[in-house]
């Protein structure tokens, strides 16, 4: 049976909205991680069969098959095709899974899965707002309205529904947020991110610099400071401090067949053990990773105890908290190096970004199996399980 291997995984350090990466065009962010993959791995890049790029806000500077433009801006050969996909926050995780499926089918040997999102240059929701301003409406068609009357499928509302359903308090969310920053701080100061982060040259008021540290980490975060942030909605529990940070970034994962490893003398870091995607309730929406993980483990013939490290995207604190509670998972194994609350959530780039971090956690801890999942718009969730080699 064919096997898909991860040879390398890289990401940029996150940039805050309007921060250190805001001056970099999203195409060039993508080109930078593509170049890093080529430079770090000695192989004939003309043999890459495809580049699959996740991006959520495909408008403005991220329009027109963003992945292809990033290939053209990079040092990769212009002969390499590329496609840009959108599965909301899971876009580049889906890119990895499509890449793996191409390898497993025997139709491809080398695929570069990636994600790009500049939330400074193409703000979240800006493409939808443009058409609403022009009087062209939004995704809520008459038939969709008939089926879900009065509902706008709000992720914020879904997150608050999870808080209520699973019995969390604001104090629970604030404590989780603080731990995300603490873990990210520890990982950064210990150099745990060095292997996965690609330096990006930027212009600052002081001159040129290389962006190497995730800008969103609050190294001096306190529970009192987090608790004092105002609520996102009256009567709710979630604040900006217990939600993922708006972020600029790019990521890339090199996935190969066994034959490609032999042909190019490449050494794999991990084997892709399982990939799946599910969908459920589009209203509470962000709860789907719970059920998607349960199903994935069953299909893989595993239990949560078999997994040594998990990356569960911190879109909002109640999502990983509910995931831990539902699956009876070990809190010490989740987002070991911090999550999106501290490190940022560059939408379409987050899936491949999490894989780069997950592999780093497995290396640091000596773990064998890792699992990543994330909530996605419309009530969907991807699950990827890897085995470190």
UniProtKB/TrEMBL annotation:
Keyword annotations:
Acyltransferase, Transferase
What EC class is this?
transferase
Domain Thiolase N-terminal: start-end pairs: 5-259
Q: Which GO terms describe its molecular function?
A: acetyl-CoA C-acetyltransferase activity
Q: Which Pfam families match?
A: Thiolase_C, Thiolase_N
Keyword Acyltransferase assigned: yes
SUPFAM superfamilies assigned: Thiolase-like
Q: Report the active site residues.
A: 89, 345, 375
User: What protein family is recorded?
Assistant: Belongs to the thiolase-like superfamily. Thiolase family.
Highest taxon of the lineage: Bacteria
Keyword Membrane recorded: no
Positions of the Thiolase C-terminal domain: 267-388
Q: What is its EC number?
A: 2.3.1.9
**Under what name is this protein listed?**
Acetyl-CoA C-acyltransferase
Per the UniProt record, the source organism is Sphingopyxis lindanitolerans
């Amino acid at each position: 049976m064919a096997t898909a291997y991860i040879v390398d995984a890289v990401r940029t350090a996150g940039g805050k909205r309007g921060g250190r990466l805001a001056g970099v065009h999203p195409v060039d962010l993508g080109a930078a991680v593509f170049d890093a993959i080529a430079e770090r791995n000695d192989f004939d890049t003309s043999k890459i069969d495809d580049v699959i790029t996740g991006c959520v806000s495909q408008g403005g500077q991220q329009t027109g098959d963003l992945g292809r433009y990033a290939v053209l801006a990079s040092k990769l050969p212009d002969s390499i095709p590329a496609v840009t996909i959108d599965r909301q926050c899971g876009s580049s995780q889906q890119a990895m899974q499509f890449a793996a499926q191409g390898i497993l089918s025997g139709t491809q040997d080398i695929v570069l899965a990636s994600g790009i999102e500049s939330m400074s240059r193409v703000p979240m929701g800006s493409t939808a707002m443009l058409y609403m301003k022009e009087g062209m409406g939004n995704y809520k068609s008459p038939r969709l309205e008939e089926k879900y009357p009065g509902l706008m499928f709000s992720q914020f509302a879904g997150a608050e529904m999870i808080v209520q359903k699973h019995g969390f308090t604001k104090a629970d969310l604030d404590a989780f947020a603080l731990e995300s920053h603490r873990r990210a701080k520890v990982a950064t100061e210990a150099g745990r991110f060095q292997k996965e982060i690609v330096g990006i040259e930027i212009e600052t008021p002081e001159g040129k610099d290389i962006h190497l540290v995730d800008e969103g980490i609050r190294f001096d975060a306190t529970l009192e400071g987090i608790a004092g942030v105002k609520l996102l909605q009256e009567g709710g529990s979630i604040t900006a401090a217990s939600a993922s940070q708006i972020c600029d970034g790019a990521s890339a994962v090199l996935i190969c067949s066994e034959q490609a490893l032999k042909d190019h003398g490449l050494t794999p870091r991990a084997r892709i053990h399982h990939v799946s995607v599910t969908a459920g309730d589009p209203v509470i929406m962000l709860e789907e990773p719970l059920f998607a993980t349960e199903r994935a483990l069953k299909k893989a013939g595993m239990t949560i105890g078999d997994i040594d490290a998990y990356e569960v995207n911190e879109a909002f604190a109640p999502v990983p908290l509910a995931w831990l509670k539902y699956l009876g998972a070990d809190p010490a194994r989740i987002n070991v190096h911090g999550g999106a609350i501290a490190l940022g959530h560059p939408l379409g780039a987050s899936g491949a970004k999490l894989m780069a971090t997950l592999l780093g956690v497995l290396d640091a801890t000596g773990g064998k199996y890792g699992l990543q999942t994330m909530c996605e718009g419309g009530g969907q969730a991807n699950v990827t399980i890897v085995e470190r080699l």
